[in-house]
Amino acid sequence: MTNVKQVLTVLLSVAMVMGLIGCESKPRLGEFTVTVSLSSDFAQGGSIPPTEVDLIGLPAAELSTAQNTSVSTYFQPLNPYRQSLVQGKDRVTLVFRDGDSGPKTVELNRKGKDRDTWQHWYQRGVVDMVVLADLRGPGISDQPGDADFRRFTLTLDKARWKGRGNLNIVVQPARVYSASQPEPQK
User: Fold this and answer.
1) Is the dihedral of CA 122, 156, 128, 173 positive or negative?
2) How many CB atoms lie under 10 A from the CB of residue 143?
3) How does pLDDT run across 63-116, given as a tens digit for each residue?
4) What one-character DSSP code corresponds to residue 35?
């Protein structure tokens, strides 16, 4: 009887360790303060054109639509796809303009001002955020995926950020990018 108990104890211990390892490897939404700023060269012409930046949280199965939609079409008034992404739930829209061009902060965490958005993303299994910026001008044209410099995808998997909670996104006249970079995927 003692040998059976020892074998069961060992098997149970191994199962628990394997369960913990399995849980740890699954991507999970981290908690972040996202700061979006205009670069200093954005207002070189003297005024800042109204510029919208959308932060979109989507589960993996829905990412390709946001990653491949035309950015120019996405920002057109009454765009059905953009309207289907509920403001404050699926997306957060930030607007920069003359007189209101300072950094904008989104608190994607359990306790911050944007906790409802974070909770919605968490419940939907979101671990990636697509960032789109409504930038217009010479030489800017629609491209697929991240080849369009007005769009990029950023992982929000907490294991890839190693406890870093601040993400900095910079908007330039012809592109948007993350100044914060996650750890490489293992």
Assistant:
1) positive
2) 14
3) 999 999 999 999 999 999 999 999 999 999 999 999 899 999 999 999 989 999
4) E
Query: pTM value?
Result: 0.84
Burial 21-55 (b: 16+ CB within 10 A, else e): eeeeeebebbbbebbbbbeeebeeeeeeeebbbbb
The Cα 89–Cα 102 span in angstroms is 23
Ramachandran sector of residue 167 (left: φ over 0; alpha: ψ -120 to 50; beta: rest): beta
CATH architecture of 27-178: Sandwich (2.60)
Give yes or no for a contact between 155 and 180, defined as CB atoms under 8 angstroms apart: no
Domain ranges of the chain: 27-178
Dihedral sign of CA atoms 149, 31, 117, 58 in order: positive
